[in-house]
């Protein structure tokens, strides 16, 4: 999921990542600062760090750490659901003077375990094949977890839809009953009115 977004120098920006339980999430980011004189984002932002905070669906802080102008963070989810990943610069300038714009490039990979370069260049082909096979098995487990999570979400959505449809049906029945009752009452009232006026 490569993307970039802009932020104020002391502004906190969050993205939401829907993650299955027991899943490794790896994020790589790079910060660029706006240069007023050159009217462009500089390739690096020396001296500027980023606080990265990850919050679980139930509000627990899973990761809170200060990194440099570019870095890699990782965490393993223990709950399935929407995790908030927030970024805020460590600028110490007062709010009134912290007017620089920042551009944050972000690449998030969910459930990926990267192969070590030394493994790729291993001379022992049997070990290399074994490690690659383990890597593939890990990826299969991750895909299986993703499918189970999607199945759970689909089941929850289906139950919610069925409950909503049931409520709508009962509301329609109640409305029809009320309309029929009002119609009968109006007919009775009109009949009584006509009888009392001796029009019938």
TrEMBL record:
A Pfam family the protein falls into: EMP24_GP25L
One of the record's GO cellular component terms: endoplasmic reticulum membrane
The protein's name: TMD11 protein
InterPro entries: Emp24-like (IPR015720), GOLD_dom (IPR009038)
Lipid bilayer topology: Single-pass type I membrane protein
Naturally occurring in which organism (per UniProt): Centropus bengalensis (lesser coucal)
Principal place of residence: endoplasmic reticulum
Record-linked PROSITE patterns: GOLD
């Amino acid at each position: 999921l490569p993307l970039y977004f802009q932020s104020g120098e002391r502004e906190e920006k969050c993205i939401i990542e829907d993650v299955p339980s027991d899943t490794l999430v790896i994020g790589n980011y790079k910060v660029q600062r706006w240069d007023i004189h050159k009217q462009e984002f500089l390739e690096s932002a020396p001296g500027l760090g980023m606080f990265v905070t990850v919050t679980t669906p139930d509000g627990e802080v899973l990761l809170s750490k200060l990194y440099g102008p570019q870095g890699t963070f990782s965490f393993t989810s223990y709950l399935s659901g929407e995790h908030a990943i927030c970024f805020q610069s460590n600028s110490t300038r007062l709010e009134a003077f912290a007017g620089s714009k920042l551009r944050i490039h972000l690449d998030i990979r969910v459930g990926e375990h990267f192969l070590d370069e030394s493994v790729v260049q291993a001379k022992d082909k049997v070990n290399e094949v074994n490690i690659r096979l383990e890597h593939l098995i890990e990826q299969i487990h991750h895909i299986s977890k993703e499918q189970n999570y999607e199945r759970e979400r689909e089941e929850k959505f289906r139950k919610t839809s069925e409950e909503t449809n049931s409520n709508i049906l009962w509301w329609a029945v109640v409305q029809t009953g009320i309309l029929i009752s009002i119609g009968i009452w109006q007919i009775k009232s009109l009949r009584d009115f006509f009888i009392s006026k001796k029009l019938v």
